[in-house]
Amino acid sequence: MREFYIRRFLRIAPLFYFMMISYYPFFWMLGGKAFPLSQFVSSALFIFNFVPQHVAGFVMASWSIGVEMALYAILPLLVFAIIGLARSLMFLAVAVFLAANWAFAFQGTKGALVLFSQLSLIAHLLHFAAGIAGYYAWLGLRRSSHQVGRLILVASLLTIVGLIGFANQIAASFGTILNQAAVSGVNAVWAVTLAGAVVGVSLYPHRWFDNPAAKLLGSASFSIYLWHPVVIVILDRSGLYRAIYASFDGASMPFFASLIATFATLKLSLHRAARHGFGGSLRPSPASSTRLFRSRTFITSVYRCRCIDLGKAPTHRYAFEWIPLD
């Protein structure tokens, strides 16, 4: 797993450290206050998910990086303990149970403890658990027909539409059962649904999801994730959003116009950053970056993966072709 940790660090750390340093002049120009040194150190060491006062991270939207890094701390244990669909489903059940009880434990808290309860690894472990279960489900179904994948994909997409369209009713239903821990139930349904969608796309790679545009977005996803809050703040402070909303009637047109302006600014700024060696460019990864790893266990990452059968029944050997998205 040493190779995995090195690649993950090199994928995340350089851009994250660059954003950390750039936030000091950025917030100074916006008239904000400086961040304490302790928060800078906890972010640099990727331990801020364990510190209630720092769990959100001072780099906007970086809280999920804290969750991801906290998971990597226990990943070796998970790799060797969770093998097979049955164990992964048990782990998913345990993760949901932990998330619900974690929410119960922080009832009535205020301030930093509220964020800590919502953004800690324990609250989000169920998402990773659903992904692991989805991986083992895919292993069992990978030789199935495309019709199976299409059925899973369509069912997952319809569930997503239902979760969005009936969000209030679903939250109220879970609230009746779980009270303050209702969000854990909603998150569990979302986690399983999204894992099902990934399994469906893997078995049935429809062109709507497996296309050059999706690959372009995937290659730059981490850069977009860290950079988009800064772009939104700059455009908001510049008055662009107010000008757009003042130019259109209603809410839909100005919303989509603001969305287009935000994405256009993101694309332009990321291309400029890529020229200077920062961030991820909006272009596919070169074929030369493809590497082969042989493994009997799952690896949680944002790499695009293809499983290659190297043997024949009854004994099979598999290689996983990992194509990094940077």
Describe this structure in words.
The model is unreliable at 280-326 (pLDDT under 50). A three-stranded antiparallel sheet has the order 1-3-2, with no helix packed on it. Helix 1 runs parallel beside helix 11, helix 8 (167-178) crosses helix 9 and helix 12 (240-247) packs antiparallel against helix 13 (252-275). The protein is built from 13 helices and three strands, in the order αααααααααααααβββ. The protein is mainly alpha-helical and 326 residues long. Strand 2 (304-309) and strand 3 (318-323) form a beta hairpin. It has helices spanning 2-29, 37-44, 63-81, 85-105, 112-119, 121-141, 146-165, 167-178, 182-203, 212-219, 221-238, 240-247, 252-275, and strands at residues 291-293, 304-309, 318-323.
Question: How are the secondary structure elements laid out?
Answer:
Blueprint: H1 2-29, H2 37-44, H3 63-81, H4 85-105, H5 112-119, H6 121-141, H7 146-165, H8 167-178, H9 182-203, H10 212-219, H11 221-238, H12 240-247, H13 252-275, E1 291-293, E2 304-309, E3 318-323
Helix pairs in contact: 1-11, 4-6, 4-9, 6-9, 7-9, 8-9, 11-13, 12-13
